[in-house]
Amino acid sequence: MSSRPAPFPTLPKGDVLGTYDTYDEAQAVVDRLARAEFPVKQVAIVGSDLRTVERVTGKMTYGRAALAGAASGLWFGLFLGLLLFIFSPSQNAILYVGAAMLIGAGFGMLFGIVSYALNRRRRDFTSIHQVIAAKYEIMIDPSLTTKAQDVLAQPRQD
């Protein structure tokens, strides 16, 4: 690793200071180096063996589809209503925000129900997608490896 940051997206090069099972463990090591005034700009946490994990959160129903659609429509309506509020000289502009939110929620609910009805047999569940690394390596500039090992060899001063 050089002192000048490499243009993204390139993989960092250097020595592997350590390998950890979780990101939190790797982050704790970098935090410990930072507290010891170590030049952490020369450190990178690299996740490898990436896997896509889809966690099923429940069964999709018309009610859930309507609620999710209404919620997203409500946010979109709030955004449009605030634009109207900002650019409208009217004193009733705050009513525009409420009306836009209600209209957005209504259209969102309708869109959510129609979308679920069209895809019902292909996907009858809700889920969350995540990309998770199987291991995390701390990569460091080779000229700083010994210094980092010395810092980590000292007892913690929490």
Features:
single chain, 158 residues, Alpha-Beta Plaits, 2 domains, three-stranded antiparallel β-sheet, 3 strands, transmembrane
Task: Quickly describe the structure.
Keywords: Membrane, Transmembrane, Transmembrane helix. This protein has 158 residues and is of the alpha+beta class.
How many E strands? 3
- Total helical segments: 4
Integer tally of domains: 2
Query: Radius of gyration over alpha carbons?
Result: 25 Å
Distance between the termini: 29 Å
* Low-pLDDT sequence parts: none
Task: Classify the helix fraction into a percent range.
Answer: 40-55%
Largest sheet: 3 strands, antiparallel
Q: What share of residues are in beta strands?
A: 15-25%
Overall mean pLDDT = 88
* Largest sheet: spatial strand order: 1-3-2
Molecular structure report:
There is one protein chain. This protein is of the alpha+beta class. Helices cover 47% and strands 25% of the residues. It folds into two domains: 15-53 and 132-153, HD domain like (Alpha-Beta Plaits, 2-Layer Sandwich), CATH 3.30.70.1370; 61-123. Helix 2 packs antiparallel against helix 3. The chain starts with 14 loop residues before the first strand and ends in a 5-residue tail after the last helix. Pfam families: YflT (PF11181). It comes from Terrimesophilobacter mesophilus.
List the helices and strands and how they pair.
Elements: E1 15-20, H1 23-35, E2 43-59, H2 62-87, H3 93-119, E3 125-140, H4 145-153
Antiparallel strand pairs: 1-3, 2-3
Helix pairs in contact: 2-3
